[in-house]
Amino acid sequence: MAARFALLHTAEPLQPLFSPLCFSVANVTVLCYDTAREAFPVDEDLISKKELLDLTGISYGQLYRWKRKRLIPEDWFIRRSTFTGQETFFPRDKILARIELIRNMKEDLSLDEIAHRVSPVPDVTVPLDDLAKHHIVTQTTCEWCRAASGQATLVFAEVLALSVIDELIRGGHIAWGEADIVWRALREHYARFAERPTTLVFVRKLGVSTCAMVAARQEGGADIEFEGEAHVVARMDLTAAAEALKLRLTEAGERG
């Protein structure tokens, strides 16, 4: 079955309906179904290998060496049929951000060390106060985290959760009373989704809030739909958010 998702952290338990992919959360009915899309949708902004090499100035050898060293994920190399035959494309924003990250790190770190840093779930521990100090999240968000968790340091999944909460709060999408839903979802489950393109969906109906993590597969995509009265508050690309966070943490480390 190609579609996968996790529906997480609501005040009421999931009640199965007629299918393993159909659930009721309080008064919200959630249907997750396979749409036979690709892991990177057709309309995603892609860049060809030739354009990438020309734009960044890296060589073919560098690109594939970084792939062998697992600095660039295998599923970012997307084979597509064109009028000239099979060509390789990449998700534009993700590959450009990753190349920038590698360049920023390779003066001080070996490729193996970089691979460790850019793994889907980097093994890093970050002091909570440093997140506000380096403007990764606001001081208010740090104070919420300290009160909610009692932690002074965070691992990567927790930093990602906090940065997502910070963005959703500042955008006016969620209230502080709902922040813990996102915190627990990413903190507990992000590692299982980290290697695939993943979207966080936050939904609210009749005052009941919950969120889902939707992960696509290369061999077939995933989609999620809610009944008409449910309001999708926000959708966030967790893959892009994680890549941006890795870059910001690296820059913060360089500044000390």
Question: Overview of this structure, please?
Answer:
- The protein is of the alpha+beta class.
- It has two domains: 4-39 and 123-193 and 196-255, no CATH class; 46-117, Multidrug-efflux Transporter Regulator, Chain: A, Domain 2.
- The protein is built from nine helices and 13 strands.
- The protein has a four-stranded antiparallel sheet. It has a four-stranded antiparallel sheet with strand order 2-3-4-12, with no helix packed on it.
- β2 (15-16) and β3 (22-25) form a beta hairpin.
- The longest helix has 18 residues, at 238-255.
The biggest sheet, with number of strands, parallel, antiparallel or mixed sense and barrel status, is:
4 strands, antiparallel
Mean pLDDT: 78
Structural class: alpha+beta
What's the total helix number? 9
| Spatial order of strands in the largest sheet | 1-11-10-13
* Number of E-state strands: 13
Distance between the termini: 46 Å
How many structural domains in the coordinates?
2
Could you outline the blueprint of secondary structure elements for this entry?
Blueprint: E1 4-8, E2 15-16, E3 22-25, E4 28-33, E5 46-48, H1 49-56, H2 60-68, E6 78-82, E7 85-91, H3 92-105, H4 111-117, E8 125-127, H5 128-133, H6 139-149, E9 153-155, H7 156-170, H8 179-193, E10 198-205, E11 208-215, E12 223-226, E13 231-237, H9 238-255
Antiparallel strand pairs: 1-11, 2-3, 3-4, 4-12, 5-7, 6-7, 8-9, 10-11, 10-13
Helix pairs in contact: 3-9, 7-8, 7-9
